[in-house]
Amino acid sequence: MVEHLPFKLLVKEKFDHLSAGQKKVAAYLIENLDEAAFKTAFQIGREAEVSETTVIRFSYSLGFEGFSKMQARIQKQLLNQNQIDLSNTDSILRIDDKQDPFTKVIENEVHILRHLLDHTNVQDIWKAVDVLIQADQILIAGHRISHAAAYWFSYTLSSLRENVSLCSPTGDFYEKFCNLTNKSALVVFSFPRYANETLKVAECAKEQGVCLISVTDRLLSPVGRISDISLTTEENAETGTNSIASVISLLDLVIAGIHQKDAKRIYTHQQKLERLYSSYEVFNE
pTM score, two decimals? Predict the structure, then answer.
């Protein structure tokens, strides 16, 4: 299992069984994998604010024979994904402090968007596409700052297929959830500061055996840890917030995948919609 699972998914699988200190190591590695690939156990421990011994014990907890084995696995995975260059291990995007703020924003967005094409991310996107095509019903939820992205995705997905519902931010989840089946899917949006309402919604889906897809900022976010599929986008390094642009771009990839795999049904559904739009003069064109 250790040999075949992508490193981030391995960490996610083992996370709940780690000690408090080891969870700090896990969180640091997940967020800084390319940086940590060539650091010593001592250096990783210093960054994660734990001891070197805790880092070594963390590698054992994941099923590796030692720290060096775990690090070799990380290096191999990153090289296979073309994320790092052996000639330059410090390849993280550096932005000139003298640049104007608008240029910084654009360059940060480019950096974030490129990471969406990480091999593991792409695999998860295709898994989400398959689930969303095959689901008999799709329920979408997002509270507070996350509701805007949830609304956009719900509206767009409703133009492609039937039986898509959006939960009201004021609360009607349980009434809509009770109509779902074991062939349905729940998509939750959760970005900092994480709303407790969203976590309760996600936990309900897990308890009832409904497939849970999360769109969140990191794999080990409260909903990311318990999701069947986690689609992630980084926070903006300059502001510490999550850009709606990168979230919508991630969702655009999902929509593009659905378009490619489910073109016939989409065409039929959109033809019905267009007839309704025309009959009731929905748009002023």
Answer: 0.79
